[in-house]
Amino acid sequence: MPQHKFLNVDFGQPYPNIASAQGFVAENAILKTTPYRPEVMIIGTFNPDDGNGADFFYGRNRNYLWRIFQNFANNANVLNGPADGVPAIGQIFELCKKFKLSFADLITKTKAETIGYKDDKLNRLCRQGLIENSVQEIAKYICATESIKYVYFTTKNENLRCLWQLWLNIETLVHVERNDVEFGSILTPSGMGGVDNFDGLHRAATIARYWVWVNHPAPPHIPPFINVGYTHLNHEWLIQCGVNPNNF
Questions:
Q1: What does the pLDDT read at residue 51?
Q2: Is residue 52 part of a domain?
Q3: Which residues of the chain have pLDDT under 50?
Q4: In this structure, what DSSP letter does residue 177 have?
Q5: Is residue 229 within 8 Å of residue 159, measured between CB atoms?
Q6: 3 domain-assigned
Q7: Which residues form the domain of 99?
Q8: What is d(CA 28, CA 140) in angstroms, rounded to the nearest whole number?
Q9: Residue of 40, 39, 10 whose CA lies nearest to 27
Q10: 23 neighbors 35 (Cβ within 8 angstroms)
Q11: Coil, strand or helix: which one is 29?
């Protein structure tokens, strides 16, 4: 049955000639080992080992996460479309280092195959008891990694009740031991978050603006947000990483 593509991977092995790839190791679909002390964890649902072409977490072409973080690093709101491309794998590891990122996914394996692995189908498998999850492992990792201060889930669709409950279980388990960790849901980097693009902005630039300004006092030139249940990325962390939020 399908398992997570990065269930247990030493990323330095497939890229021995890329210096930035060394020191990154995933266990139980969690990026547990990094050459820095991670401050932010981003939690998704599942990345099946089905030939999807991703070299790393969120590495599929239809996902905007790395394009957005590269734009953050450049401090320029110039995301114009798919032609911008996913950064090369070496650049992705450099971005991980710059922003002190860690990653995890809720699901490690599914016990049944499905046509596609979108969240609604994963939620159905979850309801039927046909998944293996990493909830306990993720919570233990966060509790043991004191440098992690912010944890973001990449969906806010509470109709996905089974997946949503797994996420809430992580938050509950962590807060038993650590009340200093902030949890929140960001607009999904897949582009499927159910909000319209801002006028004149590409989908990726719209997502970036949500990540920076939703539910935060925004500059006057930014129009109101729709579906404001999302949270914004912590501004202190962004600024410490060299990002000027006003550029987005």
A1: 65
A2: yes
A3: none
A4: H
A5: no
A6: no
A7: 8-247
A8: 12
A9: 10
A10: yes
A11: coil
pTM: 0.95
Beta strand extents in the chain (DSSP E only): 8-10, 25-27, 30-33, 40-44, 101-105, 107-110, 131-133, 150-153, 182-185
Domain-located, residue 2: no
Percent of the chain at pLDDT > 90 equals 80
Residue 33: count of CB within 10 angstroms of its CB = 15
Instruction: List the strands of the sheet with 101-105, edge to edge.
Output: 8-10, 25-27, 30-33, 101-105, 40-44, 150-153, 182-185
Q: What are phi and psi of 43, to 5 degrees?
A: -110, 125
168-227 confidence digits (pLDDT tens): 999 999 999 999 999 999 999 998 888 999 998 999 999 999 999 999 999 998 999 987
User: What pLDDT does 89 receive?
Assistant: 95
Cβ proximity of 40 and 152 under 8 Å: yes
- Distance between CA 52 and CA 4 in Å, rounded? 11
Structural domain includes residue 1: no
Number of domains in the chain: 1
